[in-house]
Amino acid sequence: MASLKGLHLEAHIMGEEVRALPDHPLVAPSVRAVAATFDCAHDDESRSLFRVRSSLSGEEINRFTHLHQSKEDLITKVLMQRYCGNVTCCCFQRCVGLDAANAVFSVTYECDQEHGTGYHRRFREYWARVQSEDLVVDGAMTDPKGDRGKRPRDQADPDLYLRVVARQSDGVVVRGAKLHQTGMLNSHEIIVMPTISMRQGEEDWAICFALPTNTKGIRYVYGRQASDTRKLEDPNLDVGNVRFGGQEVMTVFEDVFVPEKRIFLNGEVDESGKLVERFAAYHRQSYGGCKVGVGDVLIGATALIARMNGVEGASHIRDKLVEMIHLNETMFSAGIACSALGHQTLAGNYEIDMLLANVCKLSVTRFPYELARLATDIAGGLLGTMPSAKDLEDPVTGPYIRKYLAAAEGVQVTDRMKVLRLIENLVAGAGAVGYLIESMHGAGPPAAQRIMIGRQADLEGKINLAKRLLGIP
Ligand code: SF4
Ligand code: FE
Questions:
Q1: Nearest 10 degrees: Cα torsion 262, 268, 274, 279
Q2: How would DSSP label each residue in 281-322?
Q3: Catalytic-labelled residue, pool 283, 350, 365, 376
């Protein structure tokens, strides 16, 4: 937290320039969420899950900076993310850089083999420092993209895809923006990657590099979340998830200088698509851990509100809770499966099974919505009509609320309100940004996964199976 304060990022939040970011009431919950990735490496219960030996230095490091060395590592990553989702019940922001690093590690190796470049050693040196200093790194991929029907150079404004605008002997100058940057304001470093597979003639857009987040010329604009201003209220019962929260940011690069030693791809257009695919697949695996961890808390809160409402024993409630568990564990299964069927890359680190990672994420674009629907069903209409914490404290209205929101015997009205606010937070409030919208669009929307599933599934091979069985030549 202290290191984040020292960054002094140039950020705007709701029309104001804010310098003391980590203390800002809209940002603070997301700082605590990313801090949980450090705390968990020290808590007795979780430290072994969060610690691993570095393949670069041999030192013990946080698994959030690890280059996966085995299928076991891939699986443990998903377990760690589920655990973190259990603790924070939101996006804890630190997986993006981890997924970017594992993709850049193997792509730079292959690029050097094919093009005689020297990116891989550079990246190893860079990442060894990230590991030893235990830094938070964001991965930035999604460009604004302007007219979706046009290539980068055909846009009315070519900056709609981040690009190199000047080349110097000691580095390059870049201009553009990256959208939807999860946890950007809580990161020490940023790895920038191309957003699509670039073609001949698009060399200026095929650029990958890393910079400190407080580099001159980088600006941040905070993204709003539904009911976010509840975080400014006192009392805080209406917030739902008082301790933790996610964060999404627009990041602008206004002619930013990138020194040579921090560049990991520069004009090798044929490598850009590989980088996009690998990063996306690692991050699609990640969702099989983090959203499942949040789902665990939602299922728990839903079962708890059923108990508080006195309907825990009803058969249709039990059936709906089982349905929620089934959906949640189905996503988890895909996250584990794509890890268990992972393979070693030429650079030596491990990559997930790309087909199953995409299947995992495609399920994540659907199942949390169904979980939210079932939670809304079980929680009841009070989810959308409950009076505020201020009314609860009011001497006139408070006694009425305590009297008429009483439910099963022995249940505190304020406890019941807390549980309802948590469910509301996840299905319709600020937490729905992380649990629903991010599940849809994070690591790419469903159409992107469908394209990859179509490509990876070997449909011709399946046709041949049917032909062989039937004796058709
Ligand atoms: Fe990690 Fe999930 Fe947040 Fe992505 S959405 S950074 S996988 S917690
Ligand atoms: Fe995300």
A1: 20
A2: HHHHHHHHHHHHHHHHHHHHHHHHHHHHHT-TT-HHHHHHHH
A3: 283
Could you give the angle at which helices 269-309 and 413-427 cross, rounded to 10 degrees? 150
Handedness of CA 57, 60, 62, 66 (dihedral sign): positive
- Whether ligand 1 lies within 6 angstroms of the CB of 182 is answered as yes
Radius of gyration of the chain from Cα atoms?
23
CA of residue 94 to ligand 1 center, whole Å: 7
| Domains by residue range for the chain, with CATH | 2-270 (2.40.110.10), 274-470 (1.20.140.10)
Token code pair at residue 16:
């104001």
Q: Which runs of consecutive H residues, i.e. helices, occur in 67-219?
A: 71-88, 95-115, 119-133
pTM above 0.90, yes or no: yes
Other CB atoms within 10 A of residue 314 CB:
13
Q: What backbone phi and psi angles, to 5 degrees, belong to 277?
A: -65, -45
Tokens representing 316 are 């249709």
The protein residue whose alpha carbon is closest to atom 2 in ligand 1 is 290
236-264 pLDDT tens trace: 999 999 999 999 999 999 999 999 999 99
Distances (CA, A) of 410 to 23, 312, 415, 416: 38, 15, 11, 11
pLDDT band at 19 (very low <50, low <70, confident <90, very high): confident
Q: Which tokens hold the place of 256? A: 């930013």
Q: Please work out whether the CB of residue 78 comes within 6 Å of at least one atom of ligand 1.
A: no
- Residue 219 gets the label, from left (phi > 0), alpha (psi -120 to 50) or beta, of beta
Mean per-residue pLDDT, 66-91:
98
Half-sphere exposure of 433 (CA within 13 A, CB side): 23
Query: 192 near 105, Cβ under 8 Å?
Result: no
Q: Are 372 and 115 in contact (CB under 8 A)?
A: no
**What token pair was written down for 348?**
């030596």
Which amino acid makes up residue 309?
N
Q: Taken in order 248, 78, 187, 257, is the CA torsion positive or negative?
A: negative
Q: Is 91 one of the catalytic residues?
A: yes
